[in-house]
């Protein structure tokens, strides 16, 4: 049997049409496509693909179940280690992870592992998963989870299944972290995917308290000393937006990507005025940065009605840190990439509104500490990009609220919580941490993986604690 | 869900809500605020905690109906619920014994200045308060302010009550008198706070203002509330809302507050329309 060197294409909305709506871009494999794609997998004994997956899903095993039409077995295989496959299948940077190591990638395209994972998860969800509520022991120990992003959700799921009473505290009015407020609807549906997963956790018996800012409504010490929690997991993410520090950044029309995306995703500003939160888009939008966040900002701006949406990135296309698929989709939708371009000032009018982004052109020099070639300014290359909105997507840092209100919790130079990589153990007894708050902005699957490891460590810690009592 | 225990009209388009929120009441300190949502379609609205009752487990919010969201809020009745309420947010006012302090409240800003005046009084300060409004009928919290102040000065723009002047006039007289003023706290419209800052600046009297830029999350995540203070960008929701008045760039704050002017009108019209046709989408 000769197999295709290429992946079975993903059915998608037409670029012209989708650039004007918020429905999901990729429609998902049909059964036929999924089987055909599963047939490409060689079922390698050594399964090199697994080592690229941060949670080491048994990839050949679940693909084999698809081939044989055993969908219940397929989802069970995945869920052994990944509780959010519908999310990861959609947003993992597969070309850097599992698919990078697939043997087929040597000669053609890797097996569409992410697409198959998504297919399995969507099929299971559409069928309706039966969730059996946990019957807690009367003396079940209590765990508090701070933050409801992928890290917190993973910890909560794993510990609940082990019989611990878990309460998640979330500062916003909806749980999900970046999955709700950051990643747009057209990449990750909120009601159909994210909230379904979260509701499954609730059905399992996890309590979710929204509108609770830890460090203010409660401190970590209060949770442990007054509220009776035996352990605490901190998964507060990398929520603090960085600005460029160039003149004009406070002009009207300049947003952090966090604000722009939160208004749109969490607050549903794309349905203004039916939903009360407004958003300003204008005719021409410049997004500064080159990661997933930048792609999301630029593509959201198009969907909100911008005629022109630029990505302004100081390195070249090869260095773009975003997922390949997002770059590809962005190009198809007509995003205008300005590579080797760095902003030097935001220009405004008398009334305080943005009228342009002043930039310089760059060229690549010697590799820097990160191994990437460093961009160097080309003299006298200034120009002004005429825009009425600027979105800054140059990264996020740790929000200091929990760290600054918790006694004995050590942080590193950047303000991230210092935690052991394999266990999430922090300098404070009974307190664990993981996800972006420890690593800095990373990925969904890494945050989940950290959550899983911490859940295992919390389990041992609590067993020991109980034995001592 | 957060129950509205008491609803009271304080002045035309100024309402007081006492809301059941035991966790927030337990922690609230003068100078802090909450963010609420009326319903599923609603904006996140920041309001200062004007008072709190730890025994009863309630917080008091006082708000002016200025646009669509606050109008919707004002339509809620006693016994009904707010969908979301989060807090206490922001840094509390720094309270200690300073000596003689002047608390200035303008318009709706009298509400947030009240718990601060009370806190300063309890800490043993001599509290002189100046409260001002356009006219007598929209002056709020006069009795409350009188109860926590050693001296209360009232100003109105039209002279219908107290002195016919802006709050800065009696403030300047106090600064010129032989009293040593150790601190001025001013909350009100941005333009008022700006003029208070200009009034105290030549005297070098430390002056604190509470800023109200447009906010979304209130936790330091969006940066929408950034204000320029002493050439540095600060997030009002976590670094403030109170700042050294002499360092605040009031001009850029005023410009930023105008960001959604066209949207505000559109939103108001939408809400008004919905109301006429019997409000379907906002009824849950
Ligand atoms: C726009 C955008 C696009 C992205 N795209 C991708 C992608 O395609 N693929 C990918 O793998 N990764 C992507 N990422 C990165 C990924 O989303 C994050 O790495 C991941 O969500 C981190 O998970 P977390 O659980 O550590 O934190 P978060 O998801 O950030 O969740 C933290 C939660 O904690 C809450 N919180 C914070 N402080 C407190 C407090 N004091 N009290 C209570 N709650 C608190 C926050 O409100 C938030 O809900 C993207 C990120 C963004 C912003
Ligand atoms: C920390 C803080 C404390 C506040 N305390 C009080 C208070 O105790 N009582 C009170 O009456 N008002 C208070 N405000 C202002 C109040 O939040 C706004 O009046 C309200 O959000 C207006 O919404 P609207 O839709 O009714 O009006 P709109 O028509 O939308 O706007 C009217 C004006 O309100 C401001 N505004 C609009 N949206 C927001 C927003 N999301 N955040 C902040 N300001 C906004 C803008 O300057 C705008 O021009 C406070 C604001 C902040 C930031
Ligand atoms: S979780 Fe992510 S990395 Fe792992 S197999 Fe799935 S798509 Fe690949
Ligand atoms: S490396 Fe590729 S072909 Fe081999 S088992 Fe993994 S997915 Fe299948
Ligand atoms: S309101 Fe978002 S950072 Fe302050």
Automatic annotation (TrEMBL), chain A:
InterPro entries the record matches: DPD_II (IPR028261), FAD/NAD-bd_sf (IPR036188), FAD/NAD-binding_dom (IPR023753), Helical_ferredxn (IPR009051), SudA-like (IPR006004)
Any GO molecular function: iron-sulfur cluster binding
Signal peptide range: none
Gene3D superfamilies per the UniProt record, alphabetical: Alpha-helical ferredoxin, FAD/NAD(P)-binding domain
Organism superkingdom: Bacteria
Residues covered by the FAD/NAD(P)-binding domain: 142-451
One Pfam family per UniProt: Fer4_20
Residue ranges constituting the Dihydroprymidine dehydrogenase domain according to the UniProt record: 18-128
NCBIfam families associated with the record: gltA (TIGR01316)
This protein's name: Sulfide dehydrogenase (Flavoprotein) subunit SudA
UniProtKB/TrEMBL annotation, chain B:
Co-factor: note: Binds 1 FAD per subunit.
Keyword set, alphabetical order: 2Fe-2S, FAD, Flavoprotein, Iron, Iron-sulfur, Metal-binding
Binding residues for FAD: 62-64
One function term, GO molecular function aspect: 2 iron, 2 sulfur cluster binding
Domain FAD-binding FR-type: 1-95
Membrane keyword on record: no
Needed cofactors: FAD; [2Fe-2S] cluster
Gene3D superfamilies: Nucleotide-binding domain of ferredoxin-NADP reductase (FNR) module, Translation factors
GO biological process: pyrimidine nucleotide biosynthetic process
UniProt: [2Fe-2S] cluster binding residues: 222, 225, 237
Residue segments, region Disordered: 263-284
InterPro entries (alphabetical): Cyt_c3_hydrogenase_gsu (IPR012165), Dihydroorotate_DH_Fe-S-bd (IPR019480), FAD-bd_FR_type (IPR017927), FNR_nucleotide-bd (IPR039261), OxRdtase_FAD/NAD-bd (IPR001433), PyrK_electron_transfer (IPR050353), Riboflavin_synthase-like_b-brl (IPR017938)
Domain of life: Bacteria
UniProt-recorded name of the protein: Sulfide dehydrogenase (Flavoprotein) subunit SudB
Gene source species: Pelosinus propionicus DSM 13327
Classification lineage: Bacteria, Bacillati, Bacillota, Negativicutes, Selenomonadales
């Amino acid at each position: 049997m000769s197999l295709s060197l290429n992946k079975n294409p993903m059915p998608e909305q037409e670029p012209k049409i989708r650039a004007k709506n918020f429905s999901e871009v990729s429609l998902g494999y049909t059964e036929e496509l999924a089987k055909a794609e599963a047939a490409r997998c060689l079922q390698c004994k050594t399964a090199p693909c697994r080592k690229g997956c941060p949670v080491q899903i048994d990839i050949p095993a679940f693909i084999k179940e698809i081939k044989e039409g055993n969908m219940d077995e397929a989802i069970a295989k995945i869920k052994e280690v990944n509780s959010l496959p519908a999310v990861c299948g959609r947003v993992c940077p597969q070309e850097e992870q599992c698919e990078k190591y697939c043997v087929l990638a040597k000669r053609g395209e890797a097996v569409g592992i992410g697409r198959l994972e998504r297919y399995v998860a969507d099929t299971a969800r559409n069928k309706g998963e039966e969730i059996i509520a946990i019957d807690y022991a009367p003396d079940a120990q209590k765990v508090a989870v701070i933050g409801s992003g992928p890290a917190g959700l993973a910890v909560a799921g794993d510990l609940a299944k082990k019989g611990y009473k878990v309460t998640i505290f979330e500062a916003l009015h909806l749980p999900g972290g970046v999955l709700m407020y950051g990643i747009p609807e057209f990449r990750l549906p909120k009601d159909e995917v994210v909230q379904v997963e979260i509701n499954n956790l609730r059905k399992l018996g996890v309590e979710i308290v929204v509108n609770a800012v830890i460090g203010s409504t409660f401190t970590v010490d209060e949770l442990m000393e007054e509220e009776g929690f035996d352990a605490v997991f901190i998964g507060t993410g990398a929520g603090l937006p960085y600005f460029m520090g160039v003149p004009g950044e406070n002009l009207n029309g300049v947003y952090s990507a966090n604000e722009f995306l939160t208004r749109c995703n969490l607050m549903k500003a794309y349905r203004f005025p039916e939903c009360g939160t407004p958003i300003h888009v204008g005719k021409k939008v410049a997004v500064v940065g080159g990661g997933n966040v930048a792609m999301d900002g630029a593509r959201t701006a198009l969907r909100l009605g911008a005629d022109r949406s630029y990505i302004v990135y100081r390195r070249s296309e090869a260095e773009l840190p975003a997922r390949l698929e997002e770059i590809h989709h962005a190009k198809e939708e007509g995003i205008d990439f300005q590579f080797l371009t760095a902003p030097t000032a935001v220009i405004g009018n008398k009334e305080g509104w943005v009228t342009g982004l002043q930039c310089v052109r760059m060229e690549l020099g010697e590799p820097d500490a990160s191994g990437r070639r460093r961009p160097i300014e080309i003299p006298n290359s200034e120009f002004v990009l005429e825009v009425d909105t600027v979105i800054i997507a140059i990264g996020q840092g740790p929000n200091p609220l929990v760290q600054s209100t918790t006694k004995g919790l050590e942080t590193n130079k950047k303000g991230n919580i210092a935690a052991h990589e394999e266990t999430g153990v922090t300098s404070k007894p009974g307190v664990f941490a993981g996800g972006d708050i420890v690593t800095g902005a990373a990925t969904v699957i890494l945050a989940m993986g950290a959550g899983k490891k911490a859940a295992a460590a919390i389990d041992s810690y609590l067993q020991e604690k109980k034995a001592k009592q | 869900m957060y129950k509205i225990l008491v609803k009271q009209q304080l002045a035309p388009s100024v309402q007081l809500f006492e809301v059941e929120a035991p966790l927030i009441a337990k922690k609230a300190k003068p100078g802090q605020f909450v963010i609420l949502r009326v319903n599923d379609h609603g904006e996140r609205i920041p309001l200062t905690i004007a008072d709190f009752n730890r025994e009863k487990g309630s917080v008091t919010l006082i708000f002016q109906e200025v646009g669509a969201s606050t109008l919707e809020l004002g339509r809620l009745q006693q016994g009904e619920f707010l969908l979301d309420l989060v807090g206490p947010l922001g840094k509390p006012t720094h309270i200690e014994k300073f000596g003689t302090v002047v608390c200035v409240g303008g318009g709706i800003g009298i509400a947030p200045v009240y718990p601060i005046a009370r806190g300063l009084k309890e800490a043993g300060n001599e509290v002189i308060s100046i409260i001002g409004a356009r006219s007598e009928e929209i002056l709020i919290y006069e009795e409350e302010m009188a109860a926590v102040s050693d001296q209360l000065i009232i100003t109105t723009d039209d002279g219908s009550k107290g002195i016919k002047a802006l709050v800065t006039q009696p403030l300047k007289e106090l600064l010129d008198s032989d009293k040593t003023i150790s601190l001025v706290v001013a909350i009100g419209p941005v333009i008022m706070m700006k003029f208070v800052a200009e009034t105290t600046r030549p005297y070098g009297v430390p002056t604190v203002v509470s800023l109200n830029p447009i906010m979304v999350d209130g936790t330091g995540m969006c940066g929408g509330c950034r204000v320029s203070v002493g050439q540095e960008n600060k997030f009002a929701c976590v670094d403030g809302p109170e700042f050294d008045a002499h360092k605040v760039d009031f001009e850029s704050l005023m410009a930023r507050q105008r960001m959604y002017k066209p949207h505000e009108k559109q939103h108001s019209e939408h809400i008004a329309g919905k109301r006429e046709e019997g409000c379907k989408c906002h009824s849950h």
